[in-house]
Amino acid sequence: MKTSRVLSGGLAALTILPRLATVAYAQEVPLQTRTFALTPHAHYDVVLHDLFADLIVIGVVFSAVTLYFLFAYRRRNPDDVGAQPKLSLHATLGWLIIPSMLFLADDLYLFAKAADLHDHYRTVPKDAYEIKVTAQMWSWSYQYPNGVTTTNELVVPQGKPVLLRMTSQDVIHSHFLQRYRVTEDVMPGRVTYEWFLPDQLGESVVTCREYCGTMHSGMYGKVRVVSPADFERWLSAQAAPPPATNQ
Prior knowledge:
Structural class: alpha+beta
CATH superfamily of the largest domain: Cupredoxins -  blue copper proteins
Radius of gyration: 28 Å
Strand order of the largest sheet: 3-2-1-5-8
CATH class of the largest domain: Mainly Beta
Number of helices: 6
Helix content: 40-55%
CATH topology of the largest domain: Immunoglobulin-like
Order of helices and strands: HHHHHEEEEEEEEEEH
């Protein structure tokens, strides 16, 4: 009877394992470190790497167990007939609860990391530089705070968080920044947002990820990241009136 109580208590204790997984992650990495130590796209890559590593480990374990069962319980002669083993109540509950709790703990641990990544992408830094985006068939228009407007070219300063406030003039589009692993629907009559941190100089692609008509595949542009000094010069040059021409 004492052994039965111990086994029952042990199986019951396993039900808190999923909760311990999320608590362990919260203790492992403080919130501020999780949120601000990485750029959002680097954070995305870390979570994706952890997911693939998890899937590989699970795949290897399942493959090994399957191969073992195929070998250990193979039919050794044509007259062999399999027999269902009789399990005690505790053995039955153990086979049911232990694997379930282990997999649930693993899933919740990854879920906690993914939820943290989502919060990272949706928490805009206070010092973000805001640009208005207007989508239409089939181009992107970017308006800067000083009134400068560009089409299909988003120029931003390196190292400065950039907030995009977006709306559409016609149908639903989706503003996808491939380099920065972020996309968000752009809808008529509604303002949505996304932000990114341009950490490296150079150019990358912006495309539409929501089918929006016959020229959907041609609705793309570029993101050009320049140094802060070059950005200020570019912005001033764009805002300056064109030189007068002699008649």
